[in-house]
Amino acid sequence: MSFPWAKHYEPKQPLMRWLDEKLPVPRLVYNAVGAGYPVPRNLNYFWNFGVLAGAALGIQIITGIVLAMHYAANAGVAFGSVEGIMRDVNAGWFLRYAHANGASMFLLVVYIHIARGLYYGSYKAPREMVWLLGVVIFLLMMATAFMGYVLPWGQMSFWGAQVITGFFSAIPLVGETIRVWLLGGYAPDNAALNRFFSLHYLLPFVIAGVIILHIWALHIPGSNNPTGVDVKGEQDTVPFHPYYTAKDAVGLGVFMLLFALLLFFSPNLLGHPDNYIEANPLSTPAHIVPEWYFLPFYAILKSFTADFILPAKLWGVLAMFGSILLLFFLPWLDSSPVRSANYRPKYRGFLIVLLFDVILLGYVGGAEANARNVILGQIASGYYFAHFLIILPWVSRSERPRPLPGSITEAVLAKHGGTSPAQTALASN
Amino acid sequence: MVRAISTLVGLAFVGVLALALFFTAKDAIQNPAPEAAEHEFHLHPRDAALSSAGYFGTFDRRQVQRGFQVYKEVCAACHSLKYVAFRDLKEIGYTEAEVKAIANQWVIEQPSINPDTGEATTRKNVASDHFPSPFANEVAARAANNNALPPDLSLMTKARHDGANYVFSLVGKGAYRPQPAELVEKFPGAKTPEGLHYNPYFANLNIAMPPPLTSDGQVTYTDGTAATHDQMAKDVAAFLTWTAEPKLESRHAAGFASVIFIAIFCFLAWGAYQNVWRDVKH
Amino acid sequence: MATVEDQLPPGEDPALLQEEVHDPRRRDFINIAAVSFAGVGAVAIVLPLVNQMNPSADVLAQSSTEIDISKIAPGQAIKSSFRKQPLFVRNLTPAEIAEANKVPLSELRDPQTLAERTKPGKENWLITLGVCTHLGCVPLGAGEGENKGPFGGYFCPCHGSAYDTAARIRQGPAPLNLHVPDYTFNSDTVVTVG
């Protein structure tokens, strides 16, 4: 694992030597995120988002454990217990707002992390497993976020649970049976709330476990970099600590700053007013929307309005799940040997279109379902599928990549405009 | 092989979407969606300009207390405030003794059990009690209100978009008005039904609540402020902002300290980063 | 082992670097400052996480209880509750008062007179928590027909602590007398505890 020039852990104090012999956890940390992990020297700020996602998960787990000490998962009292947290528990409002907005920060960071992977080809060989585990983490996060949103038992919680479990009723023959099994009843109620709470508490630890696998898989080939060029030698890398710990600290500071602004000054900005109304099974809010991070997928769901062999509802559900599941096949859909989009002009163009496409889907997902918005959503959904399933496979075969730099070091020096004998010597190697 | 399969799957999705798009467009042209009255006649809330608005907002305690008086004398007859306790009133400047007196003199009593017979009864409120609901249950509330349920007001300003301004506008001067003639002319089906009241700040324009504030001086403020219609509406909006977000002031204060602290950390971290990387081009 | 200092990436002019670093110790100060700041921030975040476990405002608000004592005959006791803990209110008979008063203080593990444990003029009203000072069980003796133990007061069945008619510890492992909470007589028949 890792490169031959990686530094080795050499404990100096007797206590650490003793510990290293019996249980080499410090060595593990040293090799994972310490000086023992050589990392390309040219990583940009987009490489902060992995660590930020880890930090966000940590924040969610800590605030979540603490909130669970006060929350009551019972349909009769859940809403009131959340209000009790907001009003009576010491610093309860802080913990609850931190957890609610922390979820948004976590998803935001993870979306940027995924976009980074798409742009710089981090999903390609030899890092396919890193990508696959990442998609698993994303799916687990979506499940966790959804179930967490149900817990306050407001109107959006209830109707979100109703709509999302309703997806399963689209499955032919057994759909309704599965829906009733998931809910433990015919509509979301105590049984559903209790199981969602149980799973919402469990899944973050599963996520943490898969993250360990994700990092493990990453450390075998080592980190990708903005050029996508493989590490050629020691001059291409720096030790993770102190170089990237220092850089991640900057990123973490900016993250915390944004988080604090959201938490303390606009804690309900990303929420929905209807969730401050207690769940009422007899009255649906005028405008049901999921949280912002699910809006693009919701738009895809809503775009399938015509029956064609299968009923429209089933198409919508298939497409929505398909839009995420297709990410599992991405390493094989893209056959280009070049990783970074910086050297793939056509792919880069389509990827930028995809970015705006997903933003448009997000807008449509939250907007009123009038003809204009539905048509926009259908066009945007069409591009989403075409991008991954049609454009990407063909472009990756036909495009002519720009010339790649000979090495990471060469790219760095070219950026700084320096031409020194060392660089020429290196280039000729 | 991968390319062929993925292209087929992709074409299937795109094809179904194209079909859906065709039908959506056709339908939109053939049966254009009818205009809705609430689209055209709904008004955005007026600005109540409360001191609690904005990033450095704090409560104007005298105003919140006046708003409490409006709630007590006007709203409390129908609307509960179940997530707020009498003891919470200390936060808006009432003393312990005043809170006890308010609880003790509250017209609606707490449901209780007679200790001798076990029968349901009521007792006087104490400071630790939450505000009692004016109706025993939802059925009773609907029965007394023409089948409309007066919503709980504890969270009202957070449960509506732009809540404080919404409350102010909804009960403020001129909100209740005769339905415009052009509305009825354009949408004959949208005539305000019997028993409802036209109010352009309400989402569907027709609200079940009769005008709660009707004239200047409806409440006589103990602090001598002139109780104009808009003043009372503004004050009750301020009170309900507090009931929905009682920790607003500590939140703003903690936020101010946190943001400064984190900003300094960012600055130091940036310096440390430059320092660590000073020898390495990247 | 290779370190960053002696493995300058090619293309860097070592002489230039030497010039830049005038005072390495001043340079490193900023690293220490950043790490310290992060530490202070972490501690600041721990405070609310710890504080949230303290009693919440609704729990603190229910810290006083009113008790109607008009129906307790001499020799009887009732169990009520105060802060979710059992509370014993006992109307002592003159014989029980006399028995409590004749015990010399030197014999007591936790010396207190009955007068110190009751209100002046109301020596017959013994109000204590029903929580054994050993490990928190509820002693017997307040209910009708319960075992009052060898000293006629209360008896804890868990580990055999026996309390006398002034609810003072006389035998068994408990270290202290049953706790007397703060209370006031609102009238002859109503007591506010807390």
UniProtKB/TrEMBL annotation, chain A:
The chain crosses the membrane at residues 45-73, 93-118, 130-151, 157-175, 196-217, 249-271, 315-333, 345-363, 375-395. The keyword Heme applies. Binds 2 heme groups non-covalently. It comes from the Bacteria. Residues 15-227 form the Cytochrome b/b6 N-terminal region profile domain. Residues 230-406 form the Cytochrome b/b6 C-terminal region profile domain. Keywords: Electron transport, Heme, Iron, Membrane, Metal-binding, Respiratory chain, Transmembrane, Transmembrane helix, Transport. It is a multi-pass membrane protein. It is found in: Membrane. The keyword Heme applies. Its cofactor is heme b. Pfam families: Cytochrom_B_C, Cytochrome_B. Component of the ubiquinol-cytochrome c reductase complex (complex III or cytochrome b-c1 complex), which is a respiratory chain that generates an electrochemical potential coupled to ATP synthesis. PANTHER family: CYTOCHROME B. Belongs to the cytochrome b family. The main subunits of complex b-c1 are: cytochrome b, cytochrome c1 and the Rieske protein. This is Cytochrome b.
From TrEMBL, chain B:
It is found in: Membrane. Keywords: Heme, Iron, Membrane, Metal-binding, Transmembrane, Transmembrane helix. Pfam families: Cytochrom_C1. The chain crosses the membrane at residues 253-273. Gene3D superfamilies: Cytochrome c-like domain, Cytochrome c1, transmembrane anchor, C-terminal. Residues 62-171 form the Cytochrome c domain. PROSITE patterns: CYTC (PS51007). SUPFAM superfamilies: Cytochrome c (SSF46626). This is Cytochrome c1. It comes from Sphingomonas aurea.
Automatic annotation (TrEMBL), chain C:
Its EC number is 7.1.1.8. SUPFAM superfamilies: ISP domain. Its cofactor is [2Fe-2S] cluster. Keywords: 2Fe-2S, Cell membrane, Disulfide bond, Electron transport, Iron, Iron-sulfur, Membrane, Metal-binding, Translocase, Transmembrane, Transmembrane helix, Transport. The keyword Zinc does not apply. Binds 1 [2Fe-2S] cluster per subunit. Component of the ubiquinol-cytochrome c reductase complex (complex III or cytochrome b-c1 complex), which is a respiratory chain that generates an electrochemical potential coupled to ATP synthesis. The main subunits of complex b-c1 are: cytochrome b, cytochrome c1 and the Rieske protein. This is Ubiquinol-cytochrome c reductase iron-sulfur subunit. The lineage of its organism: Bacteria, Pseudomonadati, Pseudomonadota, Alphaproteobacteria, Sphingomonadales.
